[in-house]
Amino acid sequence: MIATAPAASECLADYLSTSKVSPLFIMGNALDVLQQFPSELFDCCMTSPPYWGKREYANSGIGLEGDYRDFVENLCSICAEVKRVLKSSGSFWLNIGDSYAGKNLVGIPWRVAIELTDRQGWTLRNSVVWNKVKGGPDNTRDRLRNIHEQVFHFVKSPKDYYYDVDSIRSTPKKARVVNGSVVSATGVRGVRYRRQIELSSDLTKIEKKRAFDSLERMLGCIQAGEIADFRMIIRGQQRTTHSDSEKVSGRAKELRDKGYYFLKYHPNGSKPSDVWDIIPEDTQKRKAHFAPYPEDLCKIPILATSPVGGLVLDPFCGTGTTMSVASTLGRKSVGIDLSDQYLSIAEKRSATLL
Prior knowledge:
Elements: E1 2-4, H1 8-16, E2 24-27, H2 30-34, E3 42-47, H3 68-85, E4 86-96, E5 100-101, E6 104-105, H4 108-119, E7 123-131, E8 148-155, E9 176-178, E10 181-183, H5 191-199, H6 205-224, E11 229-234, H7 250-258, E12 260-265, E13 275-277, H8 296-305, E14 311-314, H9 321-328, E15 332-337, H10 340-351
Parallel strand pairs: 1-2, 2-15, 3-4, 3-14, 7-13, 14-15
Antiparallel strand pairs: 4-8, 5-6, 7-8, 9-10, 11-12
């Protein structure tokens, strides 16, 4: 359903009293609507505000300011309300693109991020690079083509925020047994490590025995499915990960004291990295909205930072991509936008999911 700003709080209360996951859409200015909502309500917010100075969206709104500083200030005012309406365990995912003023790349994403952390008290957990893979046409002759945007993950509290990392792990490859030997998902079978331990001049006899025993136990963990894979770092053979300084790195200290250590890979697969290769929205059957905001961009944030049955917010919902993904994943959601045209498209889009 589509509500209007004056009736936002009443419609929200009615919506929350039902068990349906079809979205609630509210037409109005994001700041005005959010100010009507009670505090500590939403599990997560995923949004992509209008670019500054690049596009004219329906019904004007944020992004048309004459000075980028005004854009940053206006956007951060809305972010302050987002923080208020999020639960203490909540997350805020902000996809934001940069803009040029004359020849100068303004740095809007990081201006906003620093404002939110320094002045509003958000904790920034990740800065994700959305690599659009192909990007759009660029006829400039004096700079590189821009094909990435930032996706920031903020939390209200640095501790005890909701995060389901297992929901976003990739499916791991399986270990196997070849000619009686355990072989990990990436082909590790221990032969090379055994040889390195045997020939090492850096390990004592006692350290070698312990290294051999630990390696066999690790291969047993592979066979039992307790880990998906591993790497063994041996003193004098492999370079210490992260840092060789024993003051900085616990790994370096372990290498000094034991002569070896293991890097274990989770049996449920690896976590996504902070670079996401996602092609923009033009491949996903959207014609009426010009912002390339793909469904795949929303999946990791919603899965990881909201529970099934939770409540998701998008204060710049446009044609409802965040809401569509939330519904598909079994979450309730509220989308706000100034444009009745976009919201009409969003409502029709969500109806196809029912």
